[in-house]
Amino acid sequence: METIIILLKIVISIISGLLAGFLAVYSFNRIPAKWLCDYHQEPDRGMWGVRIKKSPWTVVFVLVFTAAMLKLLDTGFLYALPGLISLWILLLIGIADMKYQIIPDQFVIALAVTALGFIPFHLDYRSLLFGALIGGGSILLIGIIGSLLFRKEAIGFGDVKLFAAIGLMSGLKGTVIILNLTIFSSAVVFVAGLIAGKIKYGEERPLGPFICASAALYILFMPELLMLANL
Q1: What is the pLDDT of residue 231?
Q2: All structural domains of the chain with their residue ranges
Q3: Which of 146, 204, 213, 222 is the most buried (most CB within 10 A)?
């Protein structure tokens, strides 16, 4: 019986990985170019056509999502389904912010909707609401402080909305963990970039990819990270 369950998990993971990987490339290349710029702007030529090349990214995404689904299924199918959908949306958000410095509201709304799938894994629904408030509020506060210190916009409002959606999905404790992971990972990359000469002091870099990567890490390793946080 145990062998059958393992084989079933592998089959589900492969099928899910194939669907998610192919759809990630296809969907990002097909979304309206208007999604990739501010509401008062018109998309330029670089926002049309092929945005992600099928080779090698389709294979890369298929492998990543297959491995991710295999890990998510350890927590159970009810967790794996919203988990994989959230990872898929987070990937598209991260790519959009990295390539075009924009976080499409459509993706943020979709991510917030996936929070419904995580409700059974929270003891109290109020944790989700507090997570959204703390997530969006903390990023907004950091942005305000950064703007006062550097006298220019430090964090875009898209990051605020993204973290609020993530907070709604991950709950209060999860939001705090993701926030710490985001700050740590972005600081490490920024300092390493300065030392290597890849980043100039004062140069603006999108925060969205770090937020998405941290949220993805939390979704994948939620039990382990919560256990670590409780030590």
Answers
A1: 63
A2: 2-229
A3: 222
